[in-house]
Amino acid sequence: MRKIYLDKTELKRYADVYDIHFIFDDDVPEPDFYAVPQVDIVARDSEGGFIGTIGQESDLDSDAPICYINNRKECFLIAKSGKEFLDTAASWKSNIEPYSKITFYLSKSEAEKELEFFDISSIKTDDCGPSAYMIK
Fold first, then answer.
1. Which element (helix H / strand E) includes 68?
2. Whether the model pTM is above 0.85
3. Domain of 61?
4. Is residue 123 part of a domain?
5. pLDDT of the residue at 56
6. Helices (H), the chain
């Protein structure tokens, strides 16, 4: 569930001024990749890149780091939290740093060839952190 608390004027400003186009249920993209750990996409830019939270569902009120994935599937850290991302939206494109902790696969089935997935509902999150996968 995406929790974005911005009014229509703010959303338009983010899109027009900062090139951050937030995604809603009526316009969900279908990326051509599967990311591990999970990247929950919350916005896109005009160049075909995606902005999302790392390791949990999008919630810009959380402490989850925010990344940018460009159209070449290169990942960059752009903020340490959703609040920081919103506060620094004007300069997000100039404040990116390479982030190598995301692995991209063509699909979940491709990822399953290299990783073992667990049903995290049966595992305490304290035991496995934000991601429930393991390299085989």
1. strand 66-69
2. no
3. 8-107
4. no
5. 82
6. 8-18, 82-87, 108-114, 125-128
Which residues are registered as beta bridge partners of 127?
none
Q: How far apart are CA 79 and CA 77, in angstroms?
A: 6
Q: Count up the domains in the chain and report the number.
A: 1
Q: What angle do CA 33, 36, 39 make, to 5 degrees?
A: 75
Taking residue 42's Cβ as centre, other Cβ atoms within 10 Å add up to 23
Query: What digits encode the pLDDT tens for the residues 50-100?
Result: 999 998 877 777 789 999 999 999 999 999 998 899 899 999 999 899 999
Nearest to 68 by CA among 27, 111, 91, 39: 39
The reply to whether 70 falls in a domain is yes
Contact 30, 41 (CB under 8 A): no
Contact present, 111 and 34 (Cβ < 8 Å): yes
Task: Please report, for residues 75, 77, 94, 100, 111, the alpha-carbon distance to residue 103 in angstroms, rounded to integers and kept in the order given.
Answer: 9, 14, 23, 8, 9
Total residues found in the chain within this entry: 136
pLDDT number for residue 135: 44
The larger pLDDT score, comparing residue 40 to residue 7, is at: 40
Percentage of residues in the chain having pLDDT higher than 90: 46
